[in-house]
Amino acid sequence: MKTNRDVQIRDPYVVPVAEEGRYYLFGSTDANIWGKGTGFDVYVGTDLEHWEGPYPVFRPEPGFFSDENYWAPEVYEYRGRYYMFATFRRRDNRLLGTAVLVSDRLTGPFRLYSDGPVTPADWSCLDGTLHVDEAGQPWMVFCHEWTQVFDGEICAVRLTEDLKEAIGEPQLLFRASEAPWTTRLDSKSSDAGDVYVTDGAFLHRTEDGTLLMLWASFVRNRYALGVARSASGSVTGPWVHDEAPLFEQDGGHGMLFRAFDGRLMLTIHTPNRTPHERPIFIPVTDRGGKLRLA
């Protein structure tokens, strides 16, 4: 049995299963996530503090399109199966992309479902997240990485109903520098342009119907988590940013879920340094479409 301080993980993502009384904790679990990819593991627990595992849920099969940088798996129940959206670095062009995997069980094994990444082949993209709008149309919201565009972007693209491929061209939702709280990443800025980072988008519909987006960037070179809201209530926005980040103590890439006691919970990884990153869980209040750390 492990506790949170024993679990090295980035980009934590929790799937609560009320019928079992168990939480399934996914994330970037390779000891060195910046190098060769091993796969993804899951931890299973009942109290958000103690965890059994890790249990392997994905290991690449021969011929898999990537062998490096296995990042940010998110798992959704959709039409009776479990779909994992995860980031990989392609072998063919060395660019990052988000692919879709599938399994009949939360504990896997997950196998490649899409034909490689569903993000554009000539873009470096990461952190795809699934959003199903009120009309039942699935979308993927993802980051167009700063390594290509300097001012990192968050984009959205429609998906086929089976989640297997994208429909049409991605739509730009916003750039990192548009938020009032972000600052440039000094260590990466150059004569070619100032770097602003976008990471880890996650969409959440509040109790009053407001569509919010959590996303990560940097404040004075420290990882931070911000919130934007859709003025139209739809994924295409326009998106209006909160003035200040929700969390700025060197942690981010967050998501929200309901604990079994009914509390709305935020999980992020902190600190943003390998191999020291750990999951933390923070109660959050949702009042009038605004999130506050409890």
TrEMBL record:
Superkingdom per UniProt: Bacteria
Gene Ontology molecular functions: hydrolase activity
Pathway the protein acts in: Glycan metabolism; L-arabinan degradation
InterPro entries in the record: GH43_arabinanases (IPR050727), Glyco_hydro_43 (IPR006710), Glyco_hydro_beta-prop_sf (IPR023296)
Keywords: Glycosidase, Hydrolase
The family this protein is said to belong to: Belongs to the glycosyl hydrolase 43 family.
Protein name listed in UniProt: Glycoside hydrolase family 43 protein
Originating species: Paenibacillus thermoaerophilus
